[in-house]
Design a protein that fits this description.
By secondary structure, this protein is an alpha/beta fold. It is 30% helix and 28% strand. Bound molecules: adenosine-5'-triphosphate.
Length: 234
């Protein structure tokens, strides 16, 4: 799915993922190959159980492929050890979840600064200002010192997106990020992802939303662990 103008930032070659099951091995992904370029905004869609989250987990280095290769930004992710993976993931992958998963006892800005403290990419005395810039980028700077529970669902998801950007990763992955939001708020979140892609982030979003075609030029359709339609023009 790599377009002519972009080099592949993400390349999966013949990836299979098997899980043990009562009746032998179950293949959640079957011989999946794909290329995704820098700054691409990609939707992953398909029925429940088709393998969407497994694909995201493989790209994020959360799961290892049973067979095949995963290369991201020139790094063979499938070859990294668990400790190397944790460091690599912190710098290269920002993750956005359906239920936001902000830490409830930390303020919004503290939630954004936490991954910076883990990763050490930015000096300690610059982290608060960077978090404020990110909150500005997602339009909730004025919520910085509140607890997540004081924010609306859409504002919490904006905070989660700012957190995903904390260490300036090239790749943002989001697993049904609007599954818990109304359609107007969902549209605003999709707009935000589109803006991130315009600023050269590669954004991969698992979504069931029927109207995603307005936002996503590139759509990966998965059925029974295989890509059945990699590119659907809007
Ligand atoms: N850790 C695991 N152990 C065993 N089977 C698993 C595991 N993770 C996923 N599976 C199976 O792999 C298949 C694909 O799961 P996956 O979560 O990737 O689907 P999905 O398309 O994301 O589904 P949904 O839309 O419901 O979230 C399913 O049949 C699931 O039961």
């Amino acid at each position: 799915m790599n377009t002519e103008q972009s080099k592949p930032l993400i390349e999966l070659s013949h990836v299979t993922k098997s899980f043990p099951s009562m009746s032998g091995n179950f293949q959640a992904l079957k011989n999946v190959s794909l290329k995704i370029g820098k700054g691409q905004l990609v939707a992953v869609t398909g029925k429940s159980g088709s393998g969407k989250s497994t694909l995201l987990n493989i790209i994020a280095g959360i799961d290892k492929p049973t067979e095949g290769q995963v290369a991201i930004n020139g790094i063979r992710v499938d070859k990294l050890s668990e400790s190397e993976l944790a460091t690599w993931r912190g710098k290269n992958i920002g993750v956005v979840f359906q239920f936001f998963q902000l830490l409830p006892t930390l303020t919004v800005i503290e939630n954004i600064m936490l991954p910076m403290d883990f990763c050490n990419r930015y000096p300690k005395n610059e982290r608060r200002e960077r978090a404020l810039v990110l909150l500005e980028q997602v339009n909730i700077r004025e919520q910085a010192d509140k607890l997540p529970s004081a924010l609306s669902g859409g504002q919490q998801q904006r905070a989660a997106i700012a957190r995903a950007l904390a260490n300036d990763p090239p790749v943002i992955i989001a697993d049904e990020p609007t599954g818990n939001l109304d359609s107007q708020t969902s549209a605003a979140i999709f707009e935000l992802f589109a803006a991130l892609a315009r600023s050269e982030k590669t954004v991969i979003v698992v979504t069931h939303e029927k109207d995603f075609a307005d936002y996503f030029k590139d759509v990966i359709v998965i059925a029974d662990g295989a890509i059945v339609n990699e590119f659907v023009p809007a």
